[in-house]
Write a structure and sequence with these properties.
The chain contains 10 helices and no strands.
């Protein structure tokens, strides 16, 4: 137990500084291996699986720490949809057809609309950084554009509903006979 306590003590002193963090994670991984070997935990499948998962997560943390700043910038630029306003409009009819065929698609489109909203943040951040008095008007403009686009995509819902209601009315009026 003393050795295990020492190992726990070693793992508790993890630093949050970026330079030493990678080394500390490697030390944690080694400490986990030592604990597994010392306590002969090979026979306990559950503990062995837990330790293996923990080591795998620690390795993933090392890989995440080593991501370069340039890669993060590229990911941010690729994920930025502020350039895609014109492009996304060409997909409106596909979105509407999808909603018409499967109304549950609306909940999936929510992520698209949120991504579009996040794409509007960048121009507003730049305007805010410039301390421009136009921030409110630009923000209102972009918000209005987003609302207009969401309405444009989702207008298929009432159109489909009223189309179905029209079919029901026609069936009731012309095809069904009143039973006396």
């Amino acid at each position: 137990e003393k050795i295990f306590s020492v190992q726990v003590g070693r793992t508790a002193c993890v630093q949050t500084e970026e330079e030493g963090l990678g080394r500390k994670i490697v030390q944690l991984t080694q400490a986990l291996e030592e604990v597994q070997e010392f306590h002969q935990l090979e026979s306990n499948l559950q503990v062995r699986q837990f330790l293996a998962d923990t080591r795998r997560f620690l390795h993933q943390m090392i890989r995440t720490i080593n991501i370069k700043e340039e890669v993060l910038v590229v990911i941010q630029l690729v994920g930025d949809l502020s350039y895609a306003w014109k492009l996304i409009d060409s997909y409106t009819s596909f979105m509407q057809q999808g909603i018409k065929q499967d109304p549950n698609l609306v909940s999936k489109l929510r992520a698209t609309f949120l991504k579009m909203a996040s794409g509007l943040d960048l121009p507003c951040v730049r305007i805010s950084q410039a301390n421009s008095p136009d921030l409110v008007s630009v923000s209102q403009y972009y918000s209005g554009e987003l609302v207009a686009y969401v309405r444009k995509v989702l207008q298929i819902i009432p159109e489909s509903m009223f189309g179905l209601l029209d079919q029901v009315i026609k069936l009731q009026t012309f095809k069904m006979r009143e039973v006396l």
